[in-house]
Task: structure prediction
Amino acid sequence: MPEKTMRDAINEALHQAMEQDESVFVIGEDVAGCSGSSGDVGSVGGVFGVTEGIYHRWPDRCIDTPISESAIVGAAAGAALVGMRPVAEIMFADFIGVCMDQIVNQMAKFRYMFGGKSRCPAVIRFSSGGGFSAAGQHSQAMYQVMTSFPGLKVVVPSNAYDAKGLMLSAIQDDDPVLFFEPKILYQETADVPDEMYTIPFGQANFVREGDDVTVVAFGQMVPKAAAVIDTLAEEGISCDLIDPRTTSPLDENAILESVEATGRLVIVDEAPPRCGLTADIAGLAADKAFSSLKAPIKQVCAPHSPTPFSPELEAAYLPDADQITAAIKATLA
Amino acid sequence: MSIPKETLLHAYRTMRTIREFEERVNAEIMNGQIPGFTHLYTGQEANAVGVCAHLDESDTIISTHRGHGHCIAKGAEVSGMMKELFGSSEGLCKGKGGSMHVADIDKGILGANGIVAGGPPISVGSALAAKIRKNGKVAVSFSGDGSVNQGTCFEAMNMAVVLQAPAVFVIENNYYSEHTSINYAVGCDDLKARTEAFGFPVFVADGADFFAVYEAAGKAIAHARAGNGPAGVFAEQGRYHGHFVGDPQAYRAEGELEDLRENHCPLKNFRARMAESGELSEAELDGIDAEVMAEIEQSVTDAKAAARPTAEQVTEDVYIQYTATA
Result:
């Protein structure tokens, strides 16, 4: 099976979806690039290159926009309401701050408020998360915030294979989907089939299987946790590693069944702790699997601080292998 | 400008329907029959009807918090709307939306909208879809004099020009954004010029005059439909009620409301025009009035008798299919 980067896997999914369905189009800032300039229109393909090549194949369906995040999300929402399948790019997840209304009060609410009589099959893509020394306004995960809004589906791939299958599912989905691409993983590779395939939402992936501890991790924390778990296996500690892949819908059953079997739970996420996914899943387990627990639940996440700029500070900010190792061992102490 | 008799009859009937719907809704709110926050369109009927007279079912509109008139003008069924306002599960939106979210996608009504200037960006999306599909459709967004100061409105207008999308921005100046005068809240003296500075033509009309709105909207919609990019309509006409039902309207000058109702009434103006031209007789118009009154009366009777939603319906229609555990 060919090895591809996560960037290329998503790019391939977009190409294949556009080939298959002419109602699919991409829209956003520099998704083509160089529009209106003397340069080569279409030569940018998004600042991370995820939409590269699309303009050259389908110039009418690869639409550069002004820097107007509310209008981008609104345009996607409106086009989706009348039957198109837009894939909009918001360059950084942090920019949800300038288009929150269109996401939360508009697209998330249409179906419900209109009595179930509308569909809004829009996908909004975001680069997400830390690790680039991009500081406080270009490093946030944000998916944990958006998970709290009913009406949105929220996807966080952790590898290239999942990213392609989840993107194709997202485009086919009739509900609005927010697709968070951990930007630190864009160049990470995995075996990715050339053909189209989908990965259903709400179905967690067991990245590792074990008996002693359940570890749940999201996005860029999944490969970090996997590396820790592989090291601990040499010490005789075996862990389930669950990657939920979608935080809404969340595969609660996979998590609860694993916790009931292991009796120990560690949750790892790169976002700060308050009202985040680690607290959410800790609450779920405390509520529904308390009698199975043999040790206190451990949460590994960023501190309650904005993401810092300096590499030393950001390294201290993001959860690392030592913290994940210590948390797993604490549940076994 | 000659307007077919059928169009005239439909326009009058629709304006009268909006008027009686709103006045009855006001009364039912006062009776405690309709819950929530409601914003009435009474007085501004000519705007919605003059614009929507140029649209067919597959053109879209998106409306505002003051949306009943736009929805009726675009063809929303009155009985379903009344049931919706009463919170019945038989309402147009199954009681999930209420006054501020009346919608009927099949009729090209992308919804009233509780967020001021929430609509224009979405309307640009509908216009963009029409452009990509090359189907000659237009997308109309209604905005008030308050919404034009929102960034989303600016973004939508600029983006529509950049993308040359067939979007029509209808700006209804009713002089007050909630309780604040346009003289305070719009920082320039010429809102038409400010809007045209985005790069599209804006056609001005007296919002108390159906014929003026019809003519201005006709030009704007024809401009957009022909592939010339967006266009605007700017119509001035006060609302007869407060921002919301129950608003004490401390901002009104003495005699202002009386003057509006007496001297700036789209229905009176329409009748006067017909009396002058002889295109429609008084008897025809009286007949429409009687039919509309009966229809509204029936809609209230039906709404009061309609099924109430049950607790199981709370989580219905969040997603198309959602089977995860609650």
Chain A touches chain B through 51 residues (CB under 8 Å). DSSP finds twelve helices and 14 strands in chain A.
